[in-house]
């Protein structure tokens, strides 16, 4: 069953169009609400970038869908370990693929957070 999650209508140009509204920069969609996200690059990610997700906890978030930028790459070990310690899964892929996957998974009613680095 689909929830009230925003859809990712477009990406690129340094931001995202979510349910018709433009958001400059990276976004974190958590519990069906889009928030500005300070992340700018995969290499610079730290566990602090996921504090809101970790605070929400595994009951609210099954996993984080991380859009890492224009090309896929492995998130820093500290990020992977922090999410794992909180009992939250991590799936990562390039941002365009993550945006499309997010729309599919939210349509299925999955409990996920989307952390999307703008391209």
Overview in brief:
The chain is an alpha/beta fold and 119 residues long. The chain has helices at residues 51-56, 77-85, 95-107; strands at residues 8-12, 15-18, 21-24, 26-30, 33-37, 63-67, 89-93, 112-116. The chain is globular.
Structure description:
The chain has 119 residues and is α/β, with parallel strands linked by helices. It has one domain: MTH938-like (Hypothetical Protein Mth938, Chain: A), CATH 3.40.1230.10. It has 3 helices and 8 strands. The longest helix has 13 residues, at 95-107.
Any low-confidence stretches, pLDDT <50, length ≥5? none
Main beta-sheet annotation: 5 strands, mixed
Task: Please write the CATH class name.
Answer: Alpha Beta
Distance N to C terminus: 30 Å
Structural class, from helix and strand content? alpha/beta
**Strands of the largest sheet, in order across it?**
5-4-8-6-7
Give the count of helical stretches. Answer: 3
List the helices and strands and how they pair.
Blueprint: E1 8-12, E2 15-18, E3 21-24, E4 26-30, E5 33-37, H1 51-56, E6 63-67, H2 77-85, E7 89-93, H3 95-107, E8 112-116
Parallel strand pairs: 6-7, 6-8
Antiparallel strand pairs: 1-2, 2-3, 4-5, 4-8
């Amino acid at each position: 069953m689909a929830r009230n999650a925003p859809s990712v209508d477009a990406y690129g140009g340094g931001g995202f169009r979510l349910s018709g509204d433009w958001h400059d920069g990276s976004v974190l969609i958590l519990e069906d609400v889009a928030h500005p996200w300070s992340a700018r690059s995969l290499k610079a990610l730290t566990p602090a970038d996921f504090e809101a997700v970790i605070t929400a906890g595994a009951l609210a978030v099954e996993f984080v869908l991380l859009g890492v930028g224009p090309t896929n790459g492995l998130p820093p070990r500290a990020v992977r370990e922090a999410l794992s310690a909180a009992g939250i899964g991590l799936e990562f892929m390039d941002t365009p693929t993550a945006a499309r996957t997010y729309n599919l998974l939210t349509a299925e009613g999955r409990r996920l957070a989307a952390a999307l680095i703008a391209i």
